Automatic annotation (TrEMBL), chain A:
Residues 109-300 form the ABC transmembrane type-1 domain. It is found in: Cell membrane. GO terms for biological process: transmembrane transport. It comes from Longimycelium tulufanense. PANTHER family: D,D-DIPEPTIDE TRANSPORT SYSTEM PERMEASE PROTEIN DDPC-RELATED (PTHR43386:SF1), OLIGOPEPTIDE TRANSPORT SYSTEM PERMEASE PROTEIN APPC (PTHR43386). InterPro entries: BP-dependent_transpt_permease (IPR050366), MetI-like (IPR000515), MetI-like_sf (IPR035906), OppC_N (IPR025966). This is ABC transporter permease.
TrEMBL record, chain B:
GO terms for biological process: peptide transport. It is a peripheral membrane protein. The lineage of its organism: Bacteria, Bacillati, Actinomycetota, Actinomycetes, Pseudonocardiales. This is Dipeptide/oligopeptide/nickel ABC transporter ATP-binding protein. CDD domains: ABC_NikE_OppD_transporters (cd03257). Pfam families: ABC_tran (PF00005), oligo_HPY (PF08352). Residues 4-255 form the ABC transporter domain. The keyword Cell membrane applies. GO terms for cellular component: plasma membrane. Keywords: ATP-binding, Cell membrane, Membrane, Nucleotide-binding, Transport. It is found in: Cell membrane.
């Protein structure tokens, strides 16, 4: 079992230098899929992600009520600390201002999915650019990029995301995405650079150079596509981190101030004040965040193990 | 003027904090138009480094290349990286040892063959695809149109090497370098690939440098054979001369250690004693001396020079006299 962060990065790096010998006729992807299909960890994670994505996409139709309507407001009393309990038509009750909690949870999944996906895509894009520059050009460009990456990685990711998020004068869902994305860039950049360097010394790149293939085609056709394996696995793992970081930012009030659009981290933040008397308001969004992050982590870890040449059978 | 003239080629690897290592030590040979020349020697004697130096494919850092490599009169060692890039694939082709790892696993065979046609012959993708199918057909790949859409892992080892040969020959280079092209293949496939290479160079008039550690491979193919030991040529002779009368004890040892169909029944194979690493530096004496059955005291003190001897070149103080039992 892979445990430390270092070991995980090493395992990812190995994927790019995989020895394909001895398994003639079976591609890396095929043999990886064979192992994944039998892996309960992967299946559980995939089930969680599948449910989450379906719910997020269908939530406008799945939600029993309008998540922004104060429909149970008459049952709310600040003075007596009353919040609508579960009741017929509202299985999870209402929130502090009387909005249907179940509807808010369901619709809130949209924001979480969006933040996670956009933050990861932007982080991946930035990492691809930096990693490709460093791995393909080398020399001082490589040194400069890697120093920058080292500096960024030396700050804990959540702290960095919070600091970046706090820089924006008017917080919004977009600033959350940006803050979380920027923090992920160096991880992708370093991984990609590592696998690009391995590709640069590979036999097929030498063979392509022996045909006079131009440097640009060497990088984009022969090195980059073969370097993406570990990066894609990392993207799955980053989705989990991005979801948690984004929730944390919203929780700290660095997210969208308009709470008519439900978001799990923000729901959790709002529930703080009443957590002693009404823990269920915090329990549901927290449970959703944990479950989804766990799903992506399980899939990412099992993907990585499946693609790790050390584990090939 | 020969097509390729390699003169005093020397390659020194210089890593920071390590002693310089001379992988190729003053190698000279020439390849005439349409001729097949063998470079033979045990693993580690500098064959691949020699071919990479000719192709301009050695890394730029940590390597010192000196001497001269003239191709059609032009000095390749001083050409710019861009000029060499234009030559590779067009004037000079190369086939490597391991066909699976020499192909890009994520790109279809068709794209990989057309890449070189588009690069050097400026063909459109569709024209290049037609030519690629013809090329695959020429190298004996059945059903070439279907193969164009397949990926390297879907082909057998022999088919992959055929595809790589097709790519190397796609632009009709004047010179092909084949670096142990059959070493990674099954024995039956080896013979097919060798037959294909010899037929192709005969049909197209391409000159071929055949690199191998196996004298059996050059037996049917080469006009002339250079035997390398520890970065230097120790014997050069026409193929028949070399096989009939090996003069250098190393060549003799190589020949005695391969099975021959025409050997008398019951004759035993004699491996060369010792290992490649049991060397003394060429600057002190003969690098092969520690393993040599004919060793003289002189061999440990005086570096043998290349000398003309009965129509061949030989670097030895005490060559083999008797004939190989036929
Ligand atoms: N990039 C390199 N750096 C240092 N030494 C090298 C490098 N490439 C090859 N060598 C050394 O040069 C010698 C000749 O290698 P090579 O030409 O590959 O042998 P072979 O005859 O088996 O093809 C070997 O001893 C090898 O260790
Ligand atoms: Mg070699």
């Amino acid at each position: 079992m892979v445990t430390t962060r270092k070991e995980r990065v090493d395992a990812l790096a190995r994927m790019s230098t995989d020895d394909r010998e001895g398994e003639a006729g079976v591609s890396l992807a095929v043999s990886a899929w064979r192992r994944l299909r039998r892996n309960p960890v992967f299946l559980v994670g995939a089930a969680i992600i599948g449910t989450f994505v379906v719910v997020a996409l269908l939530s406008p139709w799945l939600a029993p009520h309008d998540p922004s309507e104060w429909m149970l407001a008459d049952q709310v009393s600040k003075a007596r600390n009353e919040i609508p309990p579960p009741q017929p038509g509202h299985p999870l009750g209402g929130d502090q201002v009387g909005r249907d909690l179940l509807s808010r949870l369901l619709v809130g999944s949209q924001q979480t999915l969006m933040v996670g996906v956009f933050a990861t895509v932007i982080g991946l894009g930035g990492g691809l650019v930096l990693g490709t520059l460093a791995g393909a050009i080398g020399g001082w460009v490589d040194s400069a990029v890697m120093r920058l990456v080292d500096v960024m990685l030396s700050i804990p990711s959540l702290l960095a995301a919070v600091s970046i998020g706090a820089l924006f004068a008017r917080p919004s869902q977009f600033t959350v995405i940006l803050a979380v994305a920027i923090v992920q860039i160096p991880i992708f950049a370093r991984l990609l650079r590592g696998s690009m360097l391995a590709q640069r010394n590979s036999d097929h790149v030498l063979a392509a150079r022996a045909l006079g293939v131009r440097p640009r085609a060497i990088v984009f056709r022969h090195m980059l596509p073969n370097s993406l394996g570990p990066v894609i696995v990392q993207a799955t793992l980053v989705l989990a981190v991005a979801i948690i970081d984004a929730a944390a930012l919203s929780f700290l009030g660095l997210g969208n101030p308009d709470d008519s659009v439900p978001e799990w981290g923000q729901m959790l933040g709002n529930a703080q004040t009443v957590i002693d008397s009404h823990p269920n308001l915090a329990f549901w969004p927290a449970g959703c965040i944990i479950a989804v992050a766990l799903g992506f982590t399980l899939v990412g870890e099992s993907l990585r193990d499946a693609l790790d040449p050390k584990n090939r059978r | 003027m020969a097509l390729l003239e390699v003169t005093d080629l020397t390659v020194v690897f210089q890593r920071r904090g390590e002693a310089p290592f001379t992988a190729v030590d003053g190698v000279s040979f020439a390849v005439e138009e349409g001729q097949t020349v063998g470079l033979v020697g045990e693993s580690g004697c500098g064959k691949s480094v020699t071919s990479l130096a000719i192709m301009g494919l050695l890394p730029r850092r940590g390597v010192r290349v000196s001497g001269s490599v003239r191709f059609e009169g032009a000095e390749l060692l001083t050409e710019s990286p861009r000029q060499m890039r234009d030559r590779r694939g067009r004037d000079l082709g190369m086939v490597f040892q391991d066909p699976l790892s020499s192909l890009n696993p994520v790109v279809s065979i068709g794209i990989q063959v057309t890449e070189v046609l588009e690069r050097h012959r400026g063909m459109s993708r569709s024209k290049a695809m037609r030519v690629a199918a013809e090329l695959l057909d020429q190298v004996g790949i059945p059903d070439p149109r279907r193969r164009l859409d397949e990926y390297p892992h879907q082909l057998s080892g022999g088919m992959r090497q055929r595809a790589l040969i097709a790519m190397a020959l796609a632009c009709q280079p004047r010179l092909l370098i084949a670096d142990e092209p059959t070493t990674a293949l099954d024995v039956t496939i080896q013979a097919q690939i060798l037959a294909l290479l010899s037929q192709l160079v005969r049909d197209t008039g391409t000159a071929l440098i055949m690199i191998t550690h196996d004298l059996g491979v050059v037996a049917g193919l080469c006009d002339e054979v250079n035997v390398l030991y520890a970065g230097r040529v120790v014997e050069r002779a026409a193929r028949h001369e070399l096989f009939a009368r090996p003069r250098h004890p190393y060549t003799h040892g190589l020949l005695s250690s391969i099975p021959r169909l025409d050997a008398p029944r019951g004759e035993r194979l004699v491996p060369i004693r010792g290992a490649v690493t049991d060397n003394i530096p060429w600057t002190q004496g003969c690098a092969f001396a520690p393993r040599c059955p004919n060793v003289l005291e002189k061999c440990l003190d005086v570096t043998p020079e290349m000398e003309e001897d009965d129509g061949r070149l030989l670097r030895c103080h005490n060559p083999v006299r008797q004939e190989v039992p036929a």
